[in-house]
Amino acid sequence: MGWHNTMKIFIIGDSISAHYTPFLQTCLPEGVEATRGEKGGDSSMVVSFLKEKWGAGGIDADLLLLNCGLHDIKTDPMTGAKQVPLEQYRENLQAIIQLTRQMKPKLVWVRTTPCDEGVHNRPDSKFHRFAADCHAYNAAADEIMAEERVPMIDLYNFTRRLGPDLYCDHVHFPDHIREKQAAFLAGWVMCWMAVSGK
């Protein structure tokens, strides 16, 4: 059954969102459109992208599903430096919230998905990722989003509970996991629509 009005969802995120978006598009009911922005990456890149969109008139959507974190926690194997340090990540999330409040869509935060550090952090890897950093950056985002009353979708815990053989590499997921992620996100969106009267 279709909805009375067309609803638009705009997605900003890393490659995880690029992978689940095609499945999400097929999960959503008639009248609900989902598109993904070309840029994602770390939180600093998201801030720059949103500033560009705001300067160009904003984002024409009802919901903005946004995640960033996996690029932020990239760690230099030699120095231990993060691509985006945790305190800067916090500042970037605050900037993201303030920018999106000046635009049409309602911000919805999608929690960063887990990584397999045992596979990821090979001696020849150009950068490492650590599960502890994923937890720390998710915890920082949880605190900020709760304080700012930004709704969250817990894709992290949903994904990690899908059983063994989660990954097709060190951080990405095979199609059957992407399909489940998309169905989970679509379910959240449809519940939000029902509650909000969309």
Tell me about this structure.
The chain contains 7 helices and 5 strands, in the order E-H-E-H-E-H-E-H-H-E-H-H. A 5-stranded parallel beta sheet has the order 2-1-3-4-5. With 198 residues, it is α/β, with parallel strands linked by helices. Helix 1 packs across helix 7 and helix 2 runs parallel beside helix 3 (86-100).
Which strand-content bin applies to the residues? 5-15%
Shape: globular
SSE class: alpha/beta
The counted number of beta strands is 5
- What is the domain total for the residues? 1
List the helices and strands and how they pair.
Blueprint (H helix, E strand, L loop, with lengths): L6 E6 L2 H13 L4 E5 L6 H13 L7 E4 L19 H15 L5 E5 L6 H4 L10 H17 L4 E2 L1 H6 L14 H22 L2
Parallel strand pairs: 1-2, 1-3, 3-4, 4-5
Helix pairs in contact: 1-7, 2-3, 3-5
Task: Provide a compact summary of the structure.
The chain has 198 residues and is of the alpha/beta class.
List keywords for this structure.
198 residues; alpha/beta; Rossmann fold; 5-stranded parallel β-sheet; 5 strands; 45% helix
